[in-house]
Prior knowledge:
Elements: H1 2-33, H2 35-62, E1 67-80, E2 83-95, E3 100-108, H3 111-124, E4 127-128, E5 141-145, E6 148-154, E7 161-162, H4 166-174, E8 179-185, H5 189-201, H6 206-213, H7 217-221, H8 228-237
Amino acid sequence: MADETNMENEVAVEATGATEGGEQREARGRGRGRGGNDRGGDRGGRGRGRDDRRGRGGDDDGGEELIEKLVHINRVSKTVKGGKRFGFAALVVVGDGKGRVGFGHGKAREVPEAITKATASAKKKMVRVPLKEGRTLHHDGKGRFGAGKVNVRSAPAGTGIIAGGPMRAVFESLGVADVVTKSVGTSNPYNMIRATFDALVSQTSPKSVAQRRGKKVADLLGRGGASAAEAEAEAAAITE
């Protein structure tokens, strides 16, 4: 019985030693395998830190939460010696829901890092678009970029956002509740987004037009056949 017990103890000790040795070898292997990626991970960490600081700064400047929408993710691969190397490109739209919106593009080896870069880029390039009654556009417009063409039209209350794909993300982030749009030509999300922004940056409000022409807002609104009282009331309701 004593001999059998000693043999069992020796077998257990050998198994424990083999397990610990295997774990050590595996840890060393992982360390060597990540040797080339450790530096890349450090760079990615520093990049995310910068992006996060910029994002927080943008939120603090606005003093409100931003709406972030992921529009498109593209995966690309590069064939290298030993296999393929994958990368990801993200297209993100950011807005405050109150007339400010921007889009950004980011590339990275991993999807979350690409989205973070795109979001930080979008926050830095936000533009302000005048809205009528805080729900729709002041007038119709057209935008174009490359082979992409878009038409945007103001709509009465209750219409909703009649837009598809990337254009819907832009108007939802912008805070538009009623709009009618049409995309003609390419369906490339990058060109559609840029064409949509081309149409939005050309939007003007009666207040800005009146200031540019040295007139009152009521004078511009009263030229359509409306009475002076109606024009004054509508002019008072316009804040942008």
